C-alpha cells in the first residue's frame, strides 16, 4: 500500500441515484490517479467516507474501480 | 556489547551529555505521583522516594534504602510520547469549490528524545508497540519517525513494585536488549551496559573503569533478588488456552459487578494502542456567509471499555460490561498471541494499581485457571 491510510484523499461524486424514499447511491471516483490505481482492500475491510467538518461513516468493502458506490440513508 | 563501571557521582555527567543532544524524558514528581515528563535537571528526579502500590492504591513515601532509582513505575509509559493521547493528523479547509488538506506530521527535524530510567517492562512494551505500528501491513508513519529518534537509557530494577509480575511474563526484571545504555545500580557505582554506538558516544569523556567478574556477579545477584521479591505471578505458559477455553466462565459476570468500566486500565497500559478519530471544528471555523469550514482531524486514545467502542450500525456487539471486560482481558492475554505472536501484557502491574476498585489481572487469570469449565 503506497499511501498512509490515516490521511484522507479526495473523491468526486460522479452521480447520485435515488433508490428509495430515504436512501440514495453515491458513485465516487478517487481524484488522484496513482491512489485510485493502488486502492485495494480485502473482504471485510471498511472504507471510511467523510465530509470534513460534517462527519464520517464506515462502509463495508464495495466493488472497486472505476467508481465506488455507497448507498446512504439520506433521511 | 561492552560494559563499564561508572561512579554514582558521574551519573550527573552522563545526564548532562544526554541533555546536550536530546530532550530528556524521565521520572518526575507530579503531586504525589511519579510520572514521566521533561527532566531538565537530574535533581528533579524523585530519588529517595519510594512508591507503595497495591490493587487500587498508590502511595509515595520515603525510601528505606539510599538508591538513586529507589522507585518503580508510575502510571506513565513511553506510549504517552510515541503514541500520544491526542494528536492532530491533518487540518482541512473546505469552501464550496475546494477542499484543502494539510497533513501534520513530525518531519524528523525535531530534537530527538532520550527516555531516561526506562524499565524492562517499558522496553518490552516498546517492542510490542513496534510490532503493532511498524511490523504490520501498514506502518504508522508518525510513530516511526518519533521511534527512530528515540534514545533509551534503561535501568535494571533492583526491587520490584508491589504489583509487578514481569518475571513470570518473561519480560523482566532484567533489561536484555533494545537500549542504548542500561544502568544497574550497585552498592557504590553503576554497572553500565552499552547497547549501541550512540550509547558509547554519550559515555565519551565520562570517567569509567572496565567491569570485572565481581561487578557482573553483583549485577546478577541484584536482579535475582528482585526476581525473588516479586509477589505476583501470571501463568504465561497456559496462555492463550486459559482464556480461549473459558469464554463462558461465570467469573466474567462476577468481575463485571466490580468493574466500573472506567477504562483506566487501558489508559495506563503501556501496550493498549486503540484510537478513535474525530473532526475538531472550532466555532470560529464556521462561516455562515461563505459556507467555509475548517478544522482538524484529531486522533485520541480510545478504550474498549467505552460504550461506543463496539457500537456499529444496527447495534452494539459488546453491550454489557461483562463483554467489555472479557474483551479487554482476552485481547491482552489471548488474542494478542493470535494476532502478534506474543501476549499484549508485559507484567508491569499498572492496570492493577490504577484500577479504582483494585481488579487484579493476575488474580482473575488465576481464578479462570483454577476452575476451568472446559478442557
Q: Taking Cα atoms only, what radius of gyration of chain A do you get, to the nearest Å?
A: 13 Å
Strand order of the largest sheet of chain B: 3-2-8-9-10-11-1-12
Computed CA radius of gyration of chain B, to the nearest angstrom? 23 Å
Q: What is the global morphology of chain A?
A: globular
* DSSP summary: helix tally of chain B: 13
Helicity range of chain A: under 10%
For the secondary structure, the number of strands of chain B is 16
Q: In terms of per-residue confidence, which ranges of chain B show pLDDT below 50 for 5 or more consecutive residues?
A: none
Number of helices of chain A: 1
The major pleated sheet of chain B works out as: 8 strands, mixed
The H/E string of chain B reads: EHEEEEHEEEHHEHEEHEHHHHEEEEHHH
Give the helix proportion of chain B (percent range). 25-40%
Largest interface: A-B, 14 and 22 residues
Q: Kindly, what is the distance between the CA atoms of the first and last residues of chain B, rounded to a whole number of angstroms? A: 46 Å
Strand order of the largest sheet of chain A: 1-2-5
